[in-house]
Write a structure and sequence with these properties.
heterodimer, A: 661 residues, alpha+beta, Rossmann fold, Dna Ligase, domain 1, D-amino Acid Aminotransferase, Chain A, domain 1, 6 domains, eight-stranded antiparallel sheet, eight-stranded antiparallel β-barrel, 17 helices, 39 strands, 27% helix, 32% strand, globular, B: 510 residues, eight-stranded mixed sheet, seven-stranded mixed sheet, 19 helices, 17 strands, 37% helix, elongated
Chain lengths: 661, 510
């Protein structure tokens, strides 16, 4: 076994690999860029080597520097993590040439699977099902119909020179196929001067399901079940789970065996993933093979009990897996949420800055948080915005999901925008709970972007009850002020009006040992919570049902959040609540008349003057944040009426730069 | 007998109606509460004891003898906020527009006298059109009587003004002399002369809101200390603020039960000061992580934002916080920030509130605007205020403490009780580059040499240890243990005894 390994990565995956290495008694070497000098992975490793400037191309992608760091520190092997150099065959060559061991597959496997066409060819040869399709010149619509009939409807027809989904036509029958073919061909001719047409099976309600495989140098290849990663936003996976709620035992076996066959075809060793697209009838088709550890590997670990990093290190050291397919048992269910530093309410715009608060839920046997950050860490613009992976396990999918919802509610992050409200909303979505997933889930369920989760009677009750409990704790503390001339009415003798979303509900609360009885709306509820002032998360139970809410104090009441639903709740005595009706409704300022600073930064340039007419998309100002110049553009046509900031001003988020007429 | 008792009830009912239902409705339509409703929100339920409910004016000119309302446009009395005594007057806009008559003023004076006698704060809820013109000089005399009491009460009992409607002309000078002014957005304004007079005299066209609205006085003029969205919010927040205050100058600041451990460690404070000395950080984060439960009642948050002032608690004990804000103007001292902090320091000293000063100051802001504006005298106010304060004074230098600004910011030399520095502190006469260019004037044109000298200067002074070696810093502390250190010091300093020499009063450079 190795005595020391180098981890050629950063962030949560570097930390995760270090953890396993430590457990195995292997010393670790971290590499880091300028931006990561104070990063968690650097602190966790036994040794660390600086390898360059912040941009990845000048640090984490520098094969020579990383190999030199390994040689200099006496590391015997390199774990690449994922991303960066993990699927770079040249890097593996260089590692091996330097006399070091690459903790991953062979050069041959990496290059074969790295080539889209080659990997498909190999897959077909190994008997793996691929998406039926045809690419080339097609004489006429009759031939197109014939091809489509061979493939089976529905089919997708497009000009092969057209990129992405451009000019894509879906045909469900012969007639649509003729039409589609003719228009695609004319477009191919006129737009691209290339008559080749691409016809492929159109996958209805596609799901992304992948098989984790594990091989050793002795020729054993096993499959560790599947992961479903259908919840994606713009091809970026957001939520993954294992097993898939869609796959039955027979399909699992078929997919697993095909994945193993493909892996054996390239003498695969180490951990790898064979990705499939699965249609609504459980037909599955090979997409690609990833010759590395996947981001979402924790869900597989949680249901198999295996540590994939440990297996990779053992295999790299030449040890056999020592297991057979029969030893692989899938127990329970695991779900993973990727926590991204991005603002779901602002079209998932990346968010950078200091994590002023970072309090993940406590890790337990069923909650795992792979993290690369800590409270006070800086989220830089240089790398992937993923800051943590929260995974939960349960006996059933339902249990894992409940655990995930609670854990997300406990996850308290401030200082940067993050996607926890979005994750919470998806987890609370009935369609997700039913397991009716598809890669179009987000596009279908949030067609106009994310505007918050859905309020339910349970959430409303939880918010009112928690607000009342919190208020009772605070009120009884207030009644203990020193220097009183009069006693203050006890909490239990008072009536409260709990106001949420224009609805006022009368309540009384009777504190008891470790909790309270809440009488609200003619019903009685038993509350239990250890909440005390200053806690930013309210955890407790209502009639035994667990409730977790994020809490922020406001001048009037509390901001409570769960499952992507965030509400202001006020708790007032009746005589004050009654007076609230006289308080004027303050209309929120119409921000469309302003150009607001989207991030804290320094004004580098104002490109317009007062009275200028501007067109949508025109550059208005440049704000420098984190050494990055951000060009702010007009969202619509208009006339600049006032300039409120000058070059050199340092602005806060939402500070006004320009006003429009 | 019954009828006699009933007459009291009838008279009370009539008094409670103020200027009548129609005017009450009009007040509500403006988004404002009535004088009595405001008192109900401000005080503990049922705690209000009214005084002078049946006082009426004595004016007989201009037909005033035919118009009389019991109470005469102001509701006065005492009550409690979380059980603690407070005197209150609340002007009733429904009666003669809340205008101040001789008797109206006498009612205010009476509660102020009572408050002084027993040592309880006074809260004034202002909603008045101004002087009762029909009464002429008698009304002016009434104002002056109130002013005189404001002066005498200053520094004896806390005085808080909540402006909840108009407050114009001479009337502004009563709130102006109180310790704190809160305003309600969109419905309150304060000015010496209104927009009409301004237009006649100077031809300036300006709205009430721009001239003296809540935002104007909270950002530009600094007349007000905080702005709130509506009456209820303003009053609820006044309650919150009241809990921080001692009741008078003879009492210690209150200690409320705390749920936050004194030994709470905040590891993230170790990374709050960026490695690049020119990069700002938010001092609010430091404050919120040090104080109890992250609960900080900031004052003047919109004015002179390069200085943060406000009230918080440590182990339940009220403290006043004065902190440079590196996010704005690099946290430098200038005219506005010096004045803002100076008055707050004196407020804390008056009412036995210990002062915690967080320092990251690169110096005074240079420029003709500052010099011609009198930064010398205004800066001196802050120096004076810290120097004369005898309450416990704890200082933490987080980063820069340069030049005269180092001395000013509650330094050891101004009788600081415990002066801490983080390891990131730099205590020096000025920044390294400027210092080197003076010390090594002859080498000024040799960039390499200057760079070398700058490095040497930095390594010598860009740390807290030179100051610590001279005893100007009592202890260099880890940022993460700042709360623990301050809590301990506050406990130690509970028995602090320090008096200034007897004097009639000092002569602070006003």
């Amino acid at each position: 076994m190795f005595e020391k390994i180098l981890i050629a990565n950063r962030g949560e995956i570097a930390c995760r690999i270090i953890k396993t290495a430590k457990r195995m008694g292997i010393r670790t070497v971290a590499v880091y860029s300028d931006a990561d000098a104070d990063a968690l992975h650097v602190e966790m490793a036994d040794e660390h080597v600086h390898i360059g400037e912040a941009p990845a191309a000048q640090s984490y992608l520098l094969a020579d520097k990383i190999i030199k760091a390994a040689k200099d520190t006496g590391a015997q092997a390199i774990h690449p993590g994922f991303g960066f150099l993990s699927e770079n065959a040249k890097f593996v060559e260089a590692v091996e040439a330097a006399g070091l061991v690459f903790i991953g597959p062979t050069i041959h496997a990496i290059s074969a699977m790295g080539d889209k066409i080659e990997s498909k060819r190999l897959a077909q040869k190994a008997g793996v099902s691929t998406v039926p399709g045809y690419i080339g010149e097609i004489a006429d619509d009759d031939e197109a119909v014939k091809i489509a009939a061979d493939i089976g409807y529905p089919v997708m027809i497009k000009a092969s020179a057209g990129g992405g989904g451009k000019g894509m036509r879906i045909a469900w029958d012969e007639e649509e196929c003729r039409e589609g073919f003719l228009s695609a061909r004319s477009e191919a001719r006129s737009s691209f001067g290339d008559e080749r047409i691409f016809i492929e099976k159109y996958i209805v309600e596609p799901r992304h399901i992948e098989i984790q495989i594990l091989g050793d140098s002795q020729g054993t290849v096993l499959y560790l079940g599947e992961r479903e990663c259908s919840i994606q936003r713009r091809h970026q996976k957001v939520i993954e789970e294992a097993p898939s709620p869609f796959i039955d035992e027979a399909t699992r076996k078929a997919m697993g065996e095909q994945a193993v066959a493909l892996s054996k075809a390239v003498d695969y060793r180490s951990a790898g993933t064979v990705e499939f697209i699965v249609d609504k009838d459980r037909n599955f088709y090979f997409l690609e093979m990833n010759t590395r550890l996947q981001v979402e590997h924790p869900v597989t670990e949680m249901i198999t009990g295996l540590d994939l990093v440990e297996q990779m290190i053992k295999v790299a050291a030449g040890q056999p897996l020592g297991m057979t397919q029969e030893d692989i048992r899938l127990t329970g269910w695991a779900i993973e949420s990727r926590i991204y530093a991005e603002d779901p309410y602002r079209n998932f715009l990346p968010s950078i800055g200091r994590l002023t608060r970072y309090r993940p839920p406590a890790e337990t046997g069923s909650v795992r948080n792979d993290t690369g950050v800590f409270e006070g860490a800086e989220i830089s613009m240089y790398y992937d915005p993923m800051i943590a992976k929260l995974a939960t396990w349960g006996e059933t999918r339902e249990a894992a999901l409940a655990e995930m919802r609670t854990s997300l509610d406990q996850f308290y992050i401030r200082g940067i925008a993050h996607n926890i409200p979005f994750l919470g909303a998806v987890m609370a979505h009935p369609r997700f709970a039913e397991g009716r997933l598809s890669t179009n889930f987000i596009a279908e369920e949030y067609p106009d972007g994310f505007e918050g989760g859905v309020m339910t009677p349970e959430i409303e009750l939880a918010m009112r009850a928690a607000a009342c409990f919190i208020h009772a704790v605070e009120t009884s503390r207030d009644s203990q002020m020193p220097g009183r001339i009069a006693s203050v009415a006890a909490v239990q003798s008072r009536e409260w009006i709990i106001h949420l979303d224009d609805s006022h509900v009368s309540a009384r609360i009777y504190p008891s040992q470790g909790g309270a009885t809440l009488v609200m709306g003619g019903k009685s509820f038993e509350l239990a919570s250890d909440w005390t002032p200053g806690k930013t998360v309210f955890s407790g139970t209502i009639d035994g049902r667990p409730v977790t809410l994020e809490l922020d104090r406001l001048n009037m009441g509390y901001q409570l959040s769960t499952s992507g639903v965030s509400k202001t709740v006020t708790v007032l005595p009746p005589h004050v609540d009654r007076l609230m009706t006289h308080m004027p409704e303050k209309v929120e300022a119409d921000t469309s008349k302003f150009l607001l600073c989207p991030m804290p930064g320094l004004v580098v340039a104002i490109n317009v003057t007062e009275g200028d007419e501007v067109k949508a998309g025109q550059a208005l100002a440049v704000v420098e944040a984190m050494k990055m110049e951000n060009i702010l553009r007009a969202e619509r046509d208009g006339t600049v009426s006032a300039i409120k900031a000058g070059v050199g001003d340092s602005l806060a988020v939402d500070q006004v730069i320009l006003e429009f007429e | 007998m019954k009828e006699i008792l009933k007459e009291l009830e009838d008279r009370r009912a009539q008094a409670r109606l103020g200027g009548g239902q129609k005017r009450i409705d009009a007040q509500h339509a403006r988004g404002k509460l009535t004088a009595r409703e405001r008192i109900e929100v401000l005080l503990d339920e049922g705690s209000f004891e009214e005084m002078d409910m049946f006082v009426t004016h004595r004016c007989t000119d201009f037909g005033m003898e035919k118009m009389s309302y019991p109470g005469d446009g102001v509701v006065t009395g005492s009550g409690t906020i979380n059980g603690r005594l407070v005197y209150v007057f609340s002007q009733d806009f429904t009666v003669f527009g809340g205008s101040l008559s001789e008797t109206h003023a006498q009612k205010i004076c009476k509660v102020m006298d009572m408050a002084m006698r027993v040592g309880a704060p006074v809260i004034g809820l202002n909603d008045s059109g101004g002087a009762r013109i029909q009464e002429g000089v008698a009304s002016l005399a009434g104002y002056a009587d109130v002013f005189q009491r404001n002066v005498l009460a200053s520094g004896v009992v806390p005085q808080i003004s909540v402006i909840m409607g108009p407050c114009a002309g001479g009337a502004v000078y009563s709130p102006a002399m109180t310790d704190m002014i809160f305003m309600v957005k969109d419905s309150s304004y304060m000015f010496v002369t209104g927009p009409d007079v301004v237009k006649t005299v100077t031809n300036e066209v300006v709205t009430q809101e721009e001239l003296g609205g809540a935002i104007t006085h909270n950002t530009k003029s600094a007349v007000a200390d905080k702005a709130f969205e509506n009456d209820v919010e303003a009053l609820m927040q006044t309650r919150r603020m009241f809990d921080f205050l001692s009741l008078n100058n003879r009492e210690a600041a209150p200690v409320r039960p705390s749920f936050d451990g004194a030994d709470r460690v905040e590891l993230s404070l170790d990374s709050v000061v960026p490695s690049n000395p020119n990069k700002p950080y938010d001092m609010h984060e430091v404050i919120e992580k040090i104080v109890d439960e992250g609960d900080f009642f900031e004052l003047q948050p919109l004015h002179a934002r390069n200085m943060i002032i406000g009230l918080a608690r440590m182990e339940g004990q009220t403290v006043g916080i004065v902190a440079n804000q590196p996010m704005v103007l690099a946290g430098c001292l200038d005219i506005d920030s010096s004045k803002k902090a100076a008055r707050f320091v004196r407020f804390c000293d008056c009412f036995n509130i210990p002062i915690l000063t967080l320092v990251d100051v690169p110096g005074f802001l240079p420029g003709t605007a500052q010099e011609h504006g009198g930064i010398i005298k205004h800066g001196a106010k802050l120096l004076f205020a810290f120097g004369e304060a005898t309450v416990p004074k704890i200082t933490v230098i987080t980063r820069k403490a340069y030049g005269g600004a180092y001395d000013v910011m509650s330094s050891k030399h101004l009788r600081g009780d415990m002066n801490y520095a983080w390891p990131t502190a730099e205590i020096a006469v000025m920044g390294a580059k400027g210092a080197v260019e003076i010390i090594y004037r002859a080498e000024r044109d040799d960039a390499d040499k200057i760079a070398e000298r700058t490095k040497a200067y930095e390594s010598h002074f860009a740390n807290p240890f030179v100051a610590a070696s001279k005893g100007f810093i009592d202890e260099v502390i880890m940022p993460h243990s700042t709360r623990k250190r301050i809590c301990r010091s506050l406990q130690v300093l509970k028995t602090k005894s320090l008096e200034n020499p007897w004097k009639k009063h000092d002569n602070i450079p006003l």
